[in-house]
Amino acid sequence: MISNTLKTGIFIIAIASISTIGAQEKFKIESKKKELKTDPSERMFKHLDINADNTITLEEFKTKELKDKSKEVQFESQFAEMDTDKNGSLDKTEFKAAFEMRREKRNPNETKLRAKKSNTLEKKG
To answer: Which residue ranges does the record annotate as region Disordered (predicted)?
Structure first.
C-alpha cells in the first residue's frame, strides 16, 4: 500500500506539472499576441492563410478578400504581382514585401517617419 504522505506528494507534483505546462502555454500565447500586435503584415498573413500552412494561395486570397466578384480579375492580377517567385503561392517574405510597398504607396510620410524612429532607437540601443 502507498502511504498517504506518498500519495499527497505525487498529487502535489502532478498539480505543479499541470501548472507549469499551463504557464508555458500562456507565455506562448502572450508572446504570439505581442508579435501579432506589433506586425500588421503578420496579422493579415494569418488572416488570409486559411489552412495555416504558412503560404497563401490564390484561392485563399480570393476567399478572404474578394467580396465583389466583378473584381476577380483585379485580385488575380494583384496576386500575380505579389507572387515574385511565380510558384502560385505567397510566403511570408513575399507578402510582407508587398504589404509594406502598398503601405508606402498609401502614405509615404508614415514610412519615412517609421524609418526615422527605427534609426533613432537603434542609435540609443
So the answer is: 100-125
